[in-house]
């Protein structure tokens, strides 16, 4: 499933890999050896996050698009 959540991808020296985070889904993140691999992996994790939330009866945030940080 393709979702419309904002994804932030950055390089982590500590992990020696790209990290993809989904700020609207707490704890939802993935890594990869390349920018593309991190993006592919995070889409899998988003689907798993949503599936788990449904199973547990937890609310699933609606995608808001670009987040604004103050």
TrEMBL record:
This is Uncharacterized protein. The lineage of its organism: Bacteria, Pseudomonadati, Bacteroidota, Sphingobacteriia, Sphingobacteriales. Gene3D superfamilies: 3.30.160.250. InterPro entries: TA_system_antitoxin, TTHA0281-like, TTHA1013/TTHA0281-like. It comes from the Bacteria. It comes from Solitalea longa.
């Amino acid at each position: 499933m393709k979702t419309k959540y904002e994804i932030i991808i950055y390089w982590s020296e500590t992990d020696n890999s790209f990290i993809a985070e989904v700020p609207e889904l707490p704890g939802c993140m993935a890594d990869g050896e390349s920018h593309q691999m991190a993006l592919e992996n995070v889409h899998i994790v988003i689907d798993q996050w949503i599936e788990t939330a449904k199973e547990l009866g937890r609310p699933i945030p609606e995608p808001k698009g670009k987040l604004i940080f103050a």
